[in-house]
Amino acid sequence: MDALVLEGISKNFGALAALTNVNMRVQVGEVVGLIGPNGAGKTTLFNIVTGFTKPDRGRVKLFGEDVTGLQPHQIAARGVARTFQIVKPFFGMTVYETVLVGAYLREKDEDNARQRAEVAMKLTGVYHLRNRYARELNTPQLKLVELARSLATQPKLLMLDEIVAGLTPAEVDAMTALVKRIRDEMGVTVLLVEHVMRFVMNISDRVVVLNYGEVIAEGSPSEVSSNLKVIEAYLGGKSGS
Amino acid sequence: MKTYSALGAAIALAAVPFLVGLNEYYLFLVTLILLYTTIVVAWQLIGGYGGQLDLGAGAYHGLGAVVTGFLMVNYGVSGWVGLLVSGAAAAGVAFLIGYPSFRLGLKEVWYALSSLALVLILQKIFLLWTDVAGPLERYIPYAEFDPVFMRAGTKIFYYYITAALLASTFLIVSRIRRSKTGLYLISIRENEEAAEMLGVDVRRYKLQALMIYSFIAAVTGGIYASMVGFYHPTLFDSWISIQTATLAIVGGLGHLLGPPIVSIILLTVQEYLRITLGAVIIGLHQVIFGIILVVIIMFKPDGLGPLIDSLARRFPASVRR
Fold first, then answer.
1. Do B198 and A153 touch (CB under 8 A)?
2. pTM assigned to the model
3. Which positions in chain B touch A88 (Cβ < 8 Å)?
4. Where are the domains positioned within chain B?
5. In this structure, are residues B59 and B43 in contact, taking their beta carbons and an 8 Å threshold?
6. How far apart are CA B242 and CA B222, in angstroms?
7. Among 2.70.70.10, 3.30.420.40, 3.40.50.300, 3.50.30.10, what is the CATH number of A1-78+188-241?
8. How far apart are CA A77 and CA A56, in angstroms?
9. Chain B residues within 8 Å of chain A (Cβ atoms)
């Protein structure tokens, strides 16, 4: 079964074609890495899936349901959670309150929501920070809190936008293990955008490469990393040098 | 401890009329202070938690006065019914204004200005709509003491209605603050996109906050009209909008205790200055009041809320010891 299907997605910002006829599938239980040079359209694609941006053409399907044009909170209700490339913390709230906001999506009862929030905080290792205000935390901690509040919504599809950018190699490895646990123990499908190859290549079952808004390659990490088009996209084409 | 402070506040509110010696003029002033404080407390929902700098208070307050007054004057409808009807009418108007505003994502100064425009627009509409209001004051039938009609010759009657309204507004707002709705509203204030991605229906919650606040603001207007015995389109007063937002900000955005305490103190100071200095040099009291506000914001940019919260935390501890 497909968790996410993109059919012929195109999006222009003025004269700039951010995405051109993108077709893509993410199967339930997969970890899919979405890579590509800066400006390739990765974040635009995330924004389209989560409803922040409307595509000019094409359809978005989640778990078999056409969700094109729905608002982000409706997408969230259908089981999608997302972290942001630039963290979007709730500075004036404690970590506990922040994660509780996520937990309330599926737990209407306060006690259950609190339990759910605590589970998510413990899993991501921010439980000891629960009474700290977000404004007191550093970026790696904020990224974990963002992951915790996403997990508290009990997602079926988790979308991570550069979750390890700016982390140390040790932190990257810890995040790799964490995302694997999320997939294996919670059965969450993961779609991630990433520049850190150490992370993407370690964790992804499949990698999709975007360049100038088009899918130029797709396959296992090893297939993709030996693909000539991908190497060109990253290092520049022969004709250009 | 909480029960004691609630009890203390209730006794203090109940004792005020006797502290001012049952003087009708002072009763009128303290009732006004509590009415305006009620709006400040309700404003926290949309401004302090929802993060929308709303300047529509004067519109909802005026609507409450006009609708309640109109029903009392023209149909002899009890003021109590009038309060509910006008509250519903204000919530309806808030919905009509809020729905497109939040859909378009109006925020900050743009939302502030458009909500302020509502005050001026409604004032003009009711000035021209002579069947309901018009340029002449409409007088509400006098009654020496008619609690069913909600009309009385003594201001103490209105004082206690207002005190009860302030207390219940405070309870409603503090309950919402602790609920899922309050948490959602604060997450919207902190980061709208992140909240939305966690499943928060941003528009719906902002609209809810706006409607509850406008309902309460209208009720204060209805009580005001019944107390002064007339209504007029000038009750659509943009000064009330500014005063509400100013006091709520100086009291501390999103703080529970700061805004009502600061609001009661500053409104009292304002009235005191007006009485003592208002006739010495015209406008002098407003200059001094303005300076007080500026000084507070200079030294406490987050308002007095954090200070009051920490005092409130220290107080029970010292009692226990």
1. yes
2. 0.90
3. 191, 193-194
4. 2-246
5. no
6. 20
7. 3.40.50.300
8. 24
9. 180, 183-184, 186-187, 189-191, 193-202, 254
